[in-house]
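Long-time lurker, first post. I've been practising inverse folding by hand and with some scripts of my own, and I keep getting stuck on stretches where the structure tokens seem ambiguous. Below is the full token string for one chain I'm working on. Before anyone asks, I'm not after the true native sequence, just a reasonable design that respects the backbone. If someone could post their per-position residues I'd love to compare against what I wrote down in my notebook.
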């Protein structure tokens, strides 16, 4: 990044490979309705760094690299939500609980364990990140069209679970591509 330039980045937990594989199978079942999140991008966002400069990114790299965290178990809760941070900025957009709208994310809730909560709290407090209403989840993908929310709420979600392999900080390269800036491997 050029000196003085600002960027958007996020800190996330990687999802265990066995759960990623199960989510890819689920995506295939629902691919007519949802454009799938690429497997290498399936993660649990812990916090966003909006407009971060070199100093902020350096502080985040150092803090994450030194993190003393144990790997939290990642399990789906069965709760499914939908929505869009991008669409919320469009004055014509109106959220509808009963309808997944084209362009909305389909999100699958993840158990908010004490270990996951500690990692998220440590990172957000140290980096002064405000995350109102943190709800850990993975994004299944983006809705290709409008459809009843009951269809995704009726999905048979995988029961597979496992330990999160790492905490990553990633930079947005585009809306669908990210560059890993730092990775902290976690141990069980």
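-- Answer (accepted) --
I ran through it position by position. Result:
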């Amino acid at each position: 990044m050029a000196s003085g330039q600002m960027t958007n980045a996020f800190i996330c937990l990687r999802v265990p490979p066995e759960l990623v594989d199960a989510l890819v199978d689920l995506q295939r079942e629902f691919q007519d309705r949802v454009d799938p999140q690429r497997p290498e991008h399936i993660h649990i966002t812990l916090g966003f760094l909006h407009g971060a400069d070199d100093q902020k990114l350096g502080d985040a790299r150092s803090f994450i690299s030194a993190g003393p965290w144990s790997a939290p178990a990642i399990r789906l809760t069965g709760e499914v939500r939908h929505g869009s941070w991008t669409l919320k900025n469009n004055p014509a957009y109106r959220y509808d609980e009963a309808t997944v709208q084209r362009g909305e994310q389909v999100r699958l809730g993840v158990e908010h364990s004490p270990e996951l909560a500690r990692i998220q709290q440590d990172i957000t407090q140290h980096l002064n990140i405000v995350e109102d209403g943190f709800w850990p989840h993975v994004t299944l993908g983006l809705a290709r069209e409008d459809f009843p929310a009951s269809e995704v709420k009726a999905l048979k979600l995988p029961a597979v679970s496992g330990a999160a392999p790492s905490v990553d900080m990633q930079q947005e390269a585009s809306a669908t591509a990210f560059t890993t800036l730092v990775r902290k491997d976690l141990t069980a």
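A couple of notes from the structure itself: The chain has a mean pLDDT of 92. The two ends are 34 Å apart (CA to CA). Happy to go over any region you disagree with.
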